[in-house]
Backbone:
């Protein structure tokens, strides 16, 4: 890699394919942001493990084996088993799938809806902005878990393709107003740009200006909050599942593995409590690490 | 200043009304009727007439806007109605539990302040050395570890080291301060860690920023000890933004306690909230949510006022 002659500043770069560009960007990120790279690697490992859970995990996540109840970590069950003899390692690996899918979709929906509202609020300004900001104020007066608990209680659960849509919505809703605030302030400065005036002078519609001219210029803060809120969403999903309001049995989910009867086994089977919590902590840690570095890299002035 | 506070207090009204509207109507689309659940759940066989009578008694047969109006009127006079589940006044249900929750919250805040300010400052002063890296790992971990799991790990540790389990009953502070504190220090630590981490990160970045200011150079140039420069000149100014985060996080602490109280068998507001949700107890849920929202909005206002007291450069009109 280092032996390749460094290309003159602009000409060959323009001809590069998208893949080559991406690879170069990736290399630069890994070199300048070692902590972020570490976070990225952890996320990648989780992603691979969750996509290929059936092949990676040694057992069936829901298979009950009364012969191996509450077995301590050993060669056959690396992280031990729970009170139904289910393999903890297997359930932690499958739990990654639940955490990542719910975490990503909630953060994506919350941040995207928040971004659209934030851009519209900044673009239209005046009364519309004022009205939207008051509604955002209302939503921000709830701690996120309180809002999520109420939404879950109201909507119940509705699964589509193994993902509880109402749970995703309940987690996305508290994220929305925070995302809207951040994107609005970014869009406010973009709105003052000359190219927006130019677009207006060309007679483009408001929708076109918002989505074609403003949106691409707030993509950096959008990506930053998207990553940051995946971490928040994973934590929130774990908390809700722990309270019995999120993912339901027998689906393997980290928060659920810690809830209910697992606390009856503090003494007999501490591994039931230690490993799922470690999984939550490590995944949130990875996303925070990656998100922090992404922020430094994309936008050093940006503050959350 | 007086005018400013008055204006802010008046601005609270529409926000609170919005919160009230949102929570009230959101709860009314809950599938599942509390009266049905109460009288017919677990195989109870109450006749339709009795169900109707109970609805009438609790005022649930009135049209929704009327119910909302009555509720707002009650809120204004601090009459929050009776719990639909236990039939006891909501004010009483909250009153007997709020002391416990507030005590844990205050203890967590003290722990957070005691940990966060020195750690954040050290991290900033030794920026990019191994001290900074260690402290940053400690704070990033604080953001990642769920407080309820930390609570479980604390119990696990206490259990294996001292054979201590969370007591089933709660000892009030007045009755036995030592027993009370030794019981509540653990939940306070569990939620305080995250709190400390959030504040410490802010203190760090804020100190780094302040250390670049001209007045720090002036203070050094006139020959002050570095300790005096940091403590008197840097920290005083750097802690101002930290106060905002500290206060806002405090308002959100109840959120963290919702889950942690379950782990420690603490019968506080968080526990009450989860139980109320499980029982579709609308009056109780909406009262607790309003309480939390009011706390949050009032804390916000107090922070702004405190700001102008601490920093004379900030003027409010």
Residues:
């Amino acid at each position: 890699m280092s032996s390749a002659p460094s290309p003159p500043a602009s000409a060959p770069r323009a001809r590069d394919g998208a893949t080559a560009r991406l690879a170069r960007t990736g290399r630069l990120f890994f070199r300048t942001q070692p902590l972020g790279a570490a976070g990225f690697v952890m996320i990648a490992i989780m992603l691979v493990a969750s996509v290929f859970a059936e092949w990676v995990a040694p057992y069936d996540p829901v298979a009950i084996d009364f012969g191996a109840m509450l077995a301590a970590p050993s060669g056959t069950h690396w992280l031990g088993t729970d009170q139904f003899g289910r393999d903890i390692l297997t359930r932690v690996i499958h739990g990654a799938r639940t955490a990542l899918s719910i975490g990503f979709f909630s953060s994506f929906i919350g941040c995207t809806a928040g971004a659209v509202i934030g851009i519209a609020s900044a673009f239209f300004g005046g009364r519309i902005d004022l009205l939207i900001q008051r509604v955002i104020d209302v939503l921000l007066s709830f701690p996120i878990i309180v809002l999520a608990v109420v939404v879950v209680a109201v909507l119940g659960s509705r699964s589509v393709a193994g993902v509880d849509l109402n749970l995703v919505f309940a987690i996305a809703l508290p994220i929305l107003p925070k995302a809207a605030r951040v994107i609005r302030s970014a869009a406010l400065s973009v709105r003052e740009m000359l190219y927006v005036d130019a677009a207006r002078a060309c007679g483009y519609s408001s929708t076109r200006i918002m989505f074609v001219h403003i949106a691409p210029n707030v993509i950096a803060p959008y990506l930053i909050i998207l990553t940051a809120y995946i971490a928040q969403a994973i934590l929130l999903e774990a908390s809700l599942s722990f309270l019995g309001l999120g993912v339901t049995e027998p689906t393997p989910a980290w928060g659920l593995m810690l809830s209910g009867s697992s606390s009856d086994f503090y003494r007999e089977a501490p591994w039931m409590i230690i490993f799922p919590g470690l999984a939550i902590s490590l995944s949130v840690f990875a996303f925070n690490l990656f998100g922090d570095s992404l922020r430094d890299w994309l936008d050093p002035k940006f503050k959350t | 200043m007086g005018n400013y506070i008055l204006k802010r207090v008046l601005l609270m009204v529409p926000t609170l009304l919005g919160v009230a509207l949102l929570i009230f109507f959101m709860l009314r689309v809950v599938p599942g009727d509390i009266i049905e659940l109460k009288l017919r759940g677990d195989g109870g066989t109450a006749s339709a007439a009795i169900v109707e009578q109970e609805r009438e008694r609790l005022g649930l047969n009135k049209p929704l806007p009327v119910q909302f109006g009555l509720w707002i009127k009650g809120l204004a006079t601090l009459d929050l109605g009776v719990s639909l589940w236990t039939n006891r006044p909501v004010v009483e249900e909250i009153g007997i539990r709020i002391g416990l929750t507030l005590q844990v919250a205050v203890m967590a805040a003290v722990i957070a302040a005691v940990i966060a300010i020195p750690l954040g400052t050290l991290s900033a002063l030794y920026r990019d050395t191994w001290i900074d890296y260690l402290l940053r790992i400690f704070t990033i971990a604080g953001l990642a570890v769920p407080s309820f799991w930390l609570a479980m790990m604390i119990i696990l540790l206490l259990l294996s080291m001292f054979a201590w389990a969370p007591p089933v009953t709660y000892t009030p502070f007045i009755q036995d301060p030592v027993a009370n504190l030794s019981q509540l220090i653990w939940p306070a630590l569990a939620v305080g860690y995250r709190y400390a981490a959030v504040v410490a990160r802010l203190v760090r970045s804020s100190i780094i920023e302040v250390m670049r200011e001209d007045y720090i150079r002036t203070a050094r140039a006139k020959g002050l000890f570095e300790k005096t420069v940091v403590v008197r000149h840097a920290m005083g100014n750097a802690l101002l933004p930290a106060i905002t985060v500290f206060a806002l996080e405090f308002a959100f602490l109840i959120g963290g306690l919702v889950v942690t109280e379950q782990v420690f068998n603490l019968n506080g507001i968080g526990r009450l909230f989860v139980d109320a949700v499980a029982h579709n107890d609308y009056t109780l849920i909406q009262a607790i949510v309003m309480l939390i929202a009011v706390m949050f909005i009032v804390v916000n206002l107090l922070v702004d006022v405190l700001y102008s007291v601490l920093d004379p450069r900030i003027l409010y009109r």
Summary: The mean pLDDT of chain A is 84.
